[in-house]
């Protein structure tokens, strides 16, 4: 314990340092906050070009050129960027009919995507067709609840990946929707669908507690919400404990702001989805404090067109 004389001596020294501008404020604040910007898309459906100028509500929006320019602009403004996609990258335009997904995956690689999950339409060229695209992908495709044993995707699709950005350890995993009834049996072959709730619990627990990830992100193609008891992103958030963020797809839901759900331990899970057709880019700015706790600081859902891409 300091006596009065020692206390006065130390406080006088501190006051002198403050007066000369030499006081080390960072020693009081500890390590500086770390920042991470997460950019994301979903259900782009092979829209390489903008929507036509036909007077529709999506006229002139989207296109990989404008998206790539916007992403490059943000990369120039921020140090730590994570770029993700929540599935259904393929199917929907003549580009897919002719080239079966090659230009879509090449474009994503050029834009620097870090990871994606698979949607039901990513099986539309067959499981063999998607396997043929993987050499063009400079990013992993992640699905934790599909068992690809005895298929062309065996050992080629990981359940999760771990990425480090600016000293932040990020665990990312994927969840796919049940394919029966959405995709022909011939297209998905021997792929087995496992309960996404149980898989999400197991994988998120491993990432947070086993791998000591600072943030756990789920790339989901389950859908945002349903009027029935069908499993959705809201279900996954409610039933799990360690997922910080769910980036969703499948239901083509335009969320102007992320939804906040309470998880099984009463903490917040952020859910976001940005419609379809590549007309929006989701942006989530996170700050990590001294305890590496993730705090959502800002969010945007940016329409992609020539104006927003500079």
Beta-strand content bin = 15-25%
What is the β-strand count?
13
Report the CATH topology name of the largest domain: Purple Acid Phosphatase, chain A, domain 2
Mean pLDDT: 91
The description of the largest β-sheet is:
6 strands, mixed
Please bin the fraction of helical residues: 25-40%
CATH homologous superfamily placement of the largest domain:
Metallo-dependent phosphatases
Structural class: alpha/beta
Order of helices and strands: HHEHEHHEHEEEHEHEHEEEEE
> What is the highest CATH level, the class of the largest domain?
Alpha Beta
Overall CATH architecture of the largest domain = 4-Layer Sandwich
Terminal CA distance reads 60 Å
Radius of gyration: 22 Å
Give the overall form.
globular
Number of helices: 9
What is the spatial order of strands in the main beta sheet?
5-6-8-9-11-10
Low-confidence stretches: 1-30
